[in-house]
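Ligand-bound model needed. N-[2-(1H-imidazol-4-yl)ethyl]acetamide.
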Amino acid sequence: MSSRSNLLHLNRFFVVLLAFVILYGCKTKTSTEQTTEQAIPLVNSPAFNADSAYYFIQKQVDFGPRVPNTAAHRQCGDYLVSTLKKYGLEVTEQQFIATTYDDKKLNARNIIGSFNPKATKRILLTSHWDSRPFADQDSARKDQPVLAANDGASGVGILLEIARSLAAASTKPDIGVDIIFFDAEDWGNSEVAKDKFSGYCLGSQHWAANKHISGYTAYFGIPLDMVGAKGATFLKEGYSVALAEGVVKTVWDIAAQLGYNAYFIDQNGAAITDDHVPVNEVAKIPMIDIIHTNPENASNTFFKDWHTTHDTMENIDPKTLKAVGQTVLQVLFQEAQPEVM
Ligand code: AHN
Ligand code: ZN
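Prediction:
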């Protein structure tokens, strides 16, 4: 070997050594960052009362299916308005006529309750409160309405309990919270309806185009959809990850820190057309969906009794309500903290 090639080899040795030092340096830095991240302290938040949330679900189900243009729907809507008022939230009712994919006109009502209405930093929490008019996934009674204990009432029940618990908190979080119960979410039909939402999400589409306060915005938003089934799994929903990945990470990290990682699965799931999509696209508010979906190889996309007459109270598990309710409550109290840089 010539002395010139020896020199080259020596150079190469130093290049490799340098690369190793840099890589090792970076790796150490990464693991330090991860350690710091896990150490973000959870601030005190009230204990979420899952039995109370369960009671709020039962109350809705007791009206019967809350199908638009029925007495049960009107009565349940009135109950939601009076309950939000009872807990001191400022309530706005947004009445509108929704046109369904099969050209029916619905007397629809979005119900909005605001906690701390003057605060500038606001979090938007939503659920749909209507029941599906037809149990098309049922093996037998396909034209019956759905009782919608999970697909509707569960999210509303958790949000009513969050309203109650904000009102009762000894130290109120210094943040604004808007709870919207969207109407007419579930009159969809992905086989027949030709529009981009397959007939779903009529209330959220209306609100996104006609916000209850002009110029309204929020730091971010979260709908809760089918959040009460036993053993529910919440995968990271596709549109949420595409449109608001940082919010997904915040929420799933907090859930994991609270010990709810068996519910909030660290895995990407299907993209679901839901109330967060119009709010993201039209109202331009980053919004993620907490929705029960199963891994792609499972036999159902959603919970077992989805859009059947078996979507009843028997499937509602207070343990699931606790995991979701405590996580969302913790998110609110975390966001109320002043930023530490
Ligand atoms: C679709 O099936 C396309 N979206 C489901 C939205 C939904 C229905 N959420 C509750 N029920
Ligand atoms: Zn549904």
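The pocket of zinc ion (ligand 2) is lined by residues 132, 151, 186, 307 (CB under 6 Å).
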